[in-house]
Amino acid sequence: MTAHDTQSFFTPDEFFCKKTQVLSQTYNLAHILLNRSQSKHIFVPIRSMQYLAIVEKNTFWFVDSLAYAVRKNEGGRLIRISWHPLLKVNQREGLTQNMECRVVFYGEDMEHIQNRLNSEFYQSMLQIDQRHRSSINTNSKISILPLGLG
Fold first, then answer.
1. CA angle 45–7–114, rounded 5-degree value
2. Comparing C-alpha atoms, which of 105, 104, 110, 95 is closest to residue 31?
3. What is the residue-level pLDDT of the chain in tens, covering all 150 positions?
4. Alpha-carbon distance 103 to 72, whole Å?
5. How far apart, in whole angstroms, are the C-alpha atoms of residue 110 and residue 52?
6. Phi, psi dihedrals of residue 36, rounded to the nearest 5°
7. How far, in Å, CA of 5 to CA of 28, rounded?
8. Where are the domains of the chain?
9. Three-state secondary structure call for residue 69
């Protein structure tokens, strides 16, 4: 994919929503990865589920990579679940506080997917974080030399 490609994702009608909590470690790591990015979003493949997470500052979208739709001659993948944090980052009491979140389901029988996302999403982000850290550590060499003007 080139930098000029645009991917389309569709949100079907909201089927059900509920309030829940995203674990602090999941929320924090998502924002660490997002802050490292040069984009306003990141893609996190969740291979164990054949899902793709799209992380934005205020929304986490979960796309079923096998579900495809077409609307007005434009095709795209279907978003099945989304997480919408209810607090702003600076409203949390600390980094260990879980994030209150509104979870939106875009289809029936999605509770089991939501339950799996709670752990699989975090594990997928850990893999991305580890690859990033490994590449930083192994590809960098530095030399610190005195300037010695005289």
1. 40
2. 95
3. 444 477 888 888 889 999 999 999 999 999 999 988 888 888 999 999 999 999 998 999 999 988 877 777 777 888 999 999 887 666 677 787 788 999 999 988 899 999 999 899 999 999 999 887 654 433 334 334 444 444
4. 28
5. 15
6. -75, -20
7. 29
8. 9-128
9. strand
CB 15 within 8 A of CB 107: yes
Q: Six-digit token pair at 140?
A: 């960098």
Q: How far apart are CA 31 and CA 59, in angstroms?
A: 11
| Rounded Cα gap, residues 82 and 53, in angstroms | 9
Q: Per the structure block, which two tokens stand in for 21?
A: 């909590």
Residues near 10 by beta carbon (within 8 Å), at least 6 away in sequence = 69, 71, 76, 77, 78, 79
Amino acid making up residue 25: Q
Q: Cα torsion for 42, 47, 50, 54, to the nearest 10°?
A: -10
